[in-house]
Amino acid sequence: MRAVTREALLILVKKALFGGEEALPEGVDWTELYEESKKQAVTSLCALSVPAEKKPLFLEAALRNKARFMQALFEQDRLIALLRGSDIPLVILKGSAAAAYYPVPAARTVGDVDLLVKPADYEAARALLRENGYVSGHENERHTEYEKNTVDIELHRQYSFLEADLEPLLFHVFDTPEPMRVMQYEFPAFPAPENGLVLLDHMRHHFTTGGLGLRHLADWAMFVHREMTPAFWENRFLPLAEQAGMTLFAQVMTRAAELYIGLPGEHPWARASRDDLPARVMDFFFVEGNFGVKKDKTALDMEKAAVVLYGKGFFKGLQSAGKRGWALYHHFPFLLPFAWLRQAFVWGFLALRVALTGKGLREAVRTGKTKAALYRDLGVL
Questions:
Q1: Are 31 and 5 in contact (CB under 8 A)?
Q2: Within its chain, how far is the Cα of 147 from the centroid?
């Protein structure tokens, strides 16, 4: 991707979110920019700010996204009513709880509907969904996936990913949700500090495990823009960020939003980070794309392995990855001493596959080492 494409894309996102009259650079390849906007999950945002003569290129994707967005809101509303009718409280995670901050919520690229229930209500909620025509799919220790009327749904019994336990910071306010609204649809969400923490942690998780798109940065930037006064930061958000170990990450991502997508306002607390970190973070946005879509999956898996080994050390890295990824161990805990050995075989075969398919073993390992250094500098390894 050419530098002019990157510059133009950032200007379009900035104008869609915060307005302004900044001129686009000359020599933009609009086909390349459109393709990059898809990889960054911001095509619908760009449709708001592209020059009139270029709108047809973006319009179809924007209209499809709006239709999916409205369908997701409708199905979310029905699901909330279903659970409430059985006295199962819930909160909505991400999705519409992020879109509500946008100037045009339907311009946020829609994903699935994520909702969180109490662990004690999880099995009852699963049974209720089955009884009402929701088709179940993949499940893990965090959630079960469902589909109904083309809308993907994740029913969570816990929010936290394995590498970060945020449940104590979230469930203490579960019983006092705050209503949010998108168009005519109202839904329960975490109070603003906890909602922001989820958006920040979601960005951290995908940054360290699969790749970020500009949509993630836009979600965070809009939350900061709507909620993060100096007093809010000092008194309500900073205590949560400190307990979660993400204070520096919040500062760097806010500074990146200021520098690259035009987040307005005064955020002096964001200036406390090292000056080089926002630029290093932004490079990864454009190298990897949303959820790592710009990378070959096998090579990306090798990069993840290298991150763990360089970041945690050889044996500790193997053991931690083995514990997390070995389903048999979760059923038979006595296998714990062998987790590192099993993981060594898994990653050994992965390295062999990368090497034999010519997908750049050395480059994947080198990139993983670079990532590990950046994650360590950000405090999110």
A1: no
A2: 20
Indicate the pLDDT class of residue 165, thresholds 50, 70 and 90: confident
Q: DSSP state, 86?
A: T
3-state DSSP call for residue 109?
coil
The per-residue pLDDT for 158 is 93
Q: Report the length, in residues, of the chain.
A: 381
Token pair in block for residue 68? 């999916």
Helix pair 247-261, 3-18: axis angle to 10 deg:
100
Q: What share of the chain is helix, strand, coil (3-state, %, to 5)?
A: 65, 10, 25
- Mean pLDDT, the chain, as a whole number? 92
HSE-up (13 A, CA, CB side) for residue 93: 24
Cβ contacts of 67 within 8 Å, gap of 6 or more: none
Nearest CA-CA partner of 344 in 368, 367, 325: 325
324 — alpha (psi -120 to 50), left (phi > 0) or beta?
Answer: alpha
Vertex 67, ends 148 and 57: CA angle to 5°?
135
Helices H, strands E: what count in the chain?
18, 7
Q: Count of CB atoms within 10 A of residue 24's CB?
A: 18
Q: Look at residue 163 in the predicted model and tell me its pLDDT.
A: 61
Are 215 and 42 within 8 A, CB to CB? yes
- Could you tell me which CATH number the domain at 3-288 has? 3.30.460.40
State the amino acid at position 202 in one-letter form. H
For the range 119-122, what are the long-range contacts, defined as Cβ-Cβ under 8 Å and sequence gap of 24 or more? 119/157, 119/158, 121/88, 121/89, 122/155, 122/157
Q: According to CATH, where is 3.30.460.40 located in the chain? A: 3-288
Q: Residue 213's closest CA among 98, 326, 292, 113?
A: 292
Closest CA relative to residue 284, chosen from 371, 199, 201: 371
How are beta strands 151-156 and 113-116 bridged, if at all? parallel
| Closest of 46, 60, 57 to residue 15, by C-alpha | 46
